[in-house]
Amino acid sequence: MAAARPQVYIYSNDDSKPTSQISLPAVFKTPIRSDLVNFVHTNMAKNHRQPYAVSKKAGHQTSAESWGTGRAVARIPRVRGGGTHRSGQGAFGNMCRGGRMFAPTKTWRRWHRKINIKQRRFAVASALAASSLPALVMAHGHRIEKIPEVPLVVSNGIENIDKTKQAVKLLEQLNAAADVERSKASRKVRAGKGKMRNRRHVQRKGPLVIYNEDNGIRKAFRNIPGVDTCSVERLNLLQLAPGGHLGRFCIWSEAAFQKLDDVFGTTKKKSQQKKDFMLPRSKLFTDIQRIINSDEVQKVIRPKRRKPKRAAIKKNPLKNPFVMHKLNPFSTVTKRAALKKHGLAK
Amino acid sequence: MWWRHAHHVLPVSHMRRRPANMEAETAATGAGKPGKRLPTVPESVLKKRKTLQRIREARATATATAKKVRPFLTCRGYLLSSIKLRVSTFQVQKQKRKDIFKRAEKYVKEYRKNERDEIRLRREAKRYGNFYVPDEPKLAFIIRIRGINGVSPKVRKILQLLRLRQIHNGQFVRLNKATINMLRIVEPYIAFGYPNLKTVRELVYKRGFGKVSHQRVALTDNAIIEKALGRHGIICVEDLIHEIFTVGPHFKEANNFLWPFKLSSPRGGFRKKLNHFVEGGDYGNREEHLNQLVKRMI
Q1: N- or C-end of chain A: fewer Cβ atoms within 10 A?
Q2: pTM (2 decimals)?
Q3: What is the mean predicted confidence (pLDDT) over B120-128?
Q4: Searching chain B, which residue's CA lies closest to the CA of residue A24?
Q5: pLDDT score, position B283
Q6: Bridge-partner residues for A154, per DSSP?
């Protein structure tokens, strides 16, 4: 099953009707390793951090000295001199007002992370594979209910679009506008201090348009909310799996789609672009249905159990006459006799 | 990638929709023959039908043979649980019910007879100026009154042996020299006495659970009792009650089958747990008064 490579339709960029077909590149059959993608993403995301630190001198710009013992005050260093509120106040310590913090942050903190190249490449391949599964893309939140096919490949004309108007029209024709709408509608002011730190708004991610050659496509799609563009030769995990979660909705240009086999290679053929890289093969045979329905398994499984045996709810026989009768058939006779005796039954 | 086939939205080509082994087939057969019709039912479905057919046939023959076999009756009158005849035909069940009915009837008569005998003997003795010495009680019901903490080792061990591991756990116990001495040691921790028939019945019916393969199973059906104790001739709840109340020959097995009774705290409370019943408290032997306590705890 994993070896089978179905045909994918290419949609015209004029009227979004299926034109030709193309075989699915091998990347989309890579095992989906969400754990790996998450790992690579968390580390990659650290790489565009800017260092922050407290001032080196903070809290030390006094000549405070401890008064020592015998003066009925704590032994914390105190500011010298007089004539101001500041004199005699504690200084230097992290517990003091105006003192330096505990373990002042330094710029030479290790901000960036190295990730093995193989892991990086595997992660991107995995993310691409995930983007070809409608279930995962929907789970990621994209509104792809009406798009014609996943993965969505559009003919090369898309790369020549240079007007945003045309770009929007194309997205509407492909029924991808719903995802763009979602992104637009979700724009909100960020919760937290980020809003005053130049990260004012947050919004969902929309489609990722992947092209081979930029003949205007980048500028055309640039201003559409939520839409990102990416060259197929420089696929970015941070865009393919935003937040470390698989399943970004990708729109491919035909040329980009064709190029994937070159860029990533197959499980048997090395990649042209990435040195010494072949697509990873899965360790397990993942087609569960095939395993279950195989002769070897079907021969030895037992027939389906008719009805599972469940514990009966215990009812109190002293109160419930039917249960009592079930346990002791004679009880009805005794009860009846007793009732008769008291004239309550015939 | 089964989901690939499940979720595809229109218009997906036919080639996409077909399951895996079909693709293998087409590759083999369809490749060189463009005009050949492809089979419409997938191989996997055909195989499944075959196996189901086989299972149904096997089941049919099994029931047919089972119906022919007659159950055989032992001296005790019933199927030994060790005989693996899973024959629960209607006739056998019916016979069982009749038997249970008769036994229950017999016991009712027996209890009444014993009661009246006691009374008769007392009266006779009085009449002739003799003394009637009734039997010493054979059966006691113990309830653990005190909790887990701060228990001395000897007492702890005995309570364990009596299966009273939790507060308000109750247990039937045969009274003999051995057990009486045990009870004496743990006296401050238990309230015990001599249960009457009503108490025994109510305990078994309402709070009766059996020990079935190390599990506490509710006594919702006579079959449970029969399976566990059938070999001793106890096949229904009434048999069990009779065995316990009259401390029959298989009292040990019957009592052991019963999981320790988990009783509620007494409605209306205790008088004073720390004193003996005789001193105005609660622990120790309270003989007939136990029945009232159990009534409040059941």
Answers
A1: C
A2: 0.52
A3: 96
A4: B16
A5: 97
A6: A11, A253
Shortest distance between the Cα of B129 and any Cα of chain A, in A, equals 36
**Pairing state of beta strands A228-231 and A208-211?**
parallel
Distance between CA atoms of residues B33 and A115, nearest Å = 51
User: Regarding predicted confidence, which is higher, B43 or A103?
Assistant: A103
CA distance A285 to A306: 31
Find the chain A residues whose C-beta atoms sit closer than 8 A to any C-beta of B: 1-2, 4, 6-7, 9, 18, 21, 133-135, 145-150, 286-290, 293, 295, 298, 303, 311-318, 323-324, 326-331, 333-334
Cβ of A289 within 8 Å of Cβ of B236? The answer is no
Using alpha carbons only, give the angle B219, B223, B224 rounded to the nearest 5 degrees.
Answer: 45
pLDDT confidence band for B30 (50 / 70 / 90): very low
The answer to whether the peptide bond before residue A308 is cis (omega within 30 degrees of 0) is no
Rg (CA), chain A: 35
Q: Quote the CA–CA distance of B204 and B244 in Å, as a whole number.
A: 10
- In whole angstroms, what is the distance from residue A162 CA to residue A164 CA? 7
Q: Which of B21, B23, B29 is nearest to B48 (CA)?
A: B21
CA distance B60 to B49: 17
One-letter amino acid at A289 equals Q
Helix (H, G, I), strand (E, B) or coil at A273: coil
B129 vs A306, which has greater pLDDT? Answer: B129
Q: Which has the higher per-residue pLDDT, A153 or A301?
A: A153
With a cut of 70, say whether residue B28 has pLDDT above it.
Answer: no
Distance, in angstroms, between A15 CA and closest chain B CA? 15
Say if residue B27's pLDDT is above 50.
no
* CA B61-B66-B69 angle, 5° bins: 135
Query: Which of A44-53, A254-263, B27-36, B142-151 is predicted with the least confidence, judged by mean pLDDT?
Result: B27-36
Say how far apart CA A193 and CA A181 lie, in whole Å: 27
Contact list, B59 vs chain A (CB under 8 Å): 303
DSSP codes of every residue in B158-199: HHHHTT--STTEEEEEE-SHHHHHHHHHTGGGEEEE---HHH
Nearest-Cα residue of chain B relative to residue A295: B47
Answer yes or no: do A327 and B219 touch at CB < 8 A: yes
Band (pLDDT 50/70/90 cuts) for residue A179 is very high
Q: Which two tokens stand for residue A72?
A: 């009925």
List b or e across A20-31, with b for residues whose CB sees 16 or more CB atoms inside 10 angstroms: eeeebbbbbbbb
Instruction: For residue A302, give how far its alpha carbon lies from the nearest alpha carbon of chain B (Å).
Output: 9
